[in-house]
Write a structure and sequence with these properties.
Strand 2, helix 2 and strand 3 form a beta-alpha-beta unit. A 9-stranded mixed β-sheet has the order 2-3-12-9-14-7-6-4-5. It has a 5-stranded mixed β-sheet with strand order 1-11-10-13-8, with no helix packed on it. The protein is α+β, with helices and mostly antiparallel strands. The longest helix has 11 residues. It has a single domain, classed as Cupin (Jelly Rolls), CATH 2.60.120. The chain is globular, with a radius of gyration of 19 Å. The mean pLDDT is about 90. This is JmjC domain-containing protein. One of its GO terms (molecular function) is metal ion binding. InterPro entries: Cupin_8, JmjC_dom.
């Protein structure tokens, strides 16, 4: 799963050759209900706060859309781009049965628990088959994993957004991470060290964002989790964190094919409204 010099040790190729010889898994009865869309139920939503506003957005078909994206990147302001990745092959064909067919016996680090800032949160290595079956009914999340380093052929279905390159055409400067999970996975309000073009491949995710200018008012943890807020921004306790009511909060619903630009150091909370597959593209 680590980065390997394939020219001297072609281990990824060997792993894939072995995987291809292993028996695949039928998706029937092999996918936990948490990874299945339930059309009869309503997706959970973010309840608007008195201090929340919609994130600026544009549509990929708009004539001036790319100019607005470049302006947002240069000015370090979030922007939601509707249908920006709708023609990406991954958006058109990736589903949980498809990934199960491609990855059934590969092993990944999986998070166990509601969110990583909780005391009972942990991680465990498991095959994709066991992850998606989830026989113990745990809250599982395959989060921030460099899947394309481990399974390079899936990268053929992915197009890096143009704005990630800047003046360079070298994709090695872009870090790509996968996020795969059922509905109601949560990433608490936190910051990242690089710019992020977040692309929703499958399903819907809900975002709540706060400017880095308001860092003191989101009450970061001390120590190793200093990039993570103590505030539950889904339902903030204003008696414990009163200054959070004073910040400008930006909300967005990101659907399949949409992209959201998250500037460096901007605080962002993420919750999956449905079973979800996402890719984050970190760049400078």
């Amino acid at each position: 799963m680590g980065r390997i010099d394939e020219s001297s040790a072609p281990l990824r190729q060997l792993a894939w050759m072995i995987h291809e010889q292993l028996p695949s898994t039928s998706s029937e009865n092999a996918i936990h209900p948490g990874f299945c869309f339930n059309k009869t139920s309503h997706s959970p939503v973010l309840v608007p706060l008195p201090n929340s506003f919609p994130i600026e957005e544009c549509h990929d078909d708009d004539e001036c859309c790319f100019e607005r994206i470049v302006s947002a990147v240069n000015n370090e302001t979030p922007i939601l781009i509707r249908k920006h990745a709708s023609n990406m092959p991954a958006v058109q064909k990736w589903t949980f049965p498809f990934l199960l067919q491609q990855l059934h016996s590969r092993t990944f680090p999986v998070e166990i628990g509601t969110k990583y800032s909780d005391e009972d949160w942990s991680q465990k290595m498991m095959t994709f088959r066991n992850f998606i079956l989830n026989s113990e009914n745990e809250q599982l999340y395959l989060a921030q994993h460099r899947l394309f380093d481990q399974v390079p052929h899936l990268k053929h279905d992915v197009c890096i957004p143009d704005v990630c390159f800047g003046e360079s055409t070298n994709d090695e400067n872009v870090d790509m991470n996968m996020w795969i999970g059922p509905s109601n996975t949560v990433s608490p309000l936190h910051t990242d060290p690089r710019k992020n073009m977040f692309v929703q491949i499958h399903g819907t995710k809900l975002f709540r964002m706060v400017s880095p200018n308001d860092t003191e008012s989101v009450y970061p943890f001390d120590g190793m989790l200093s990039n993570t807020s103590q505030v539950d921004v889904d339902n903030p306790d204003l008696s414990e964190f009163p200054n959070f009511s004073k910040v400008r909060v930006l909300d967005a619903v990101v659907n399949a094919g949409d992209a959201l630009f998250i500037p460096e150091k901007w605080w962002h909370f993420v919750r999956s409204a449905t079973p979800s597959i996402s890719i984050s593209f970190w760049f400078d």
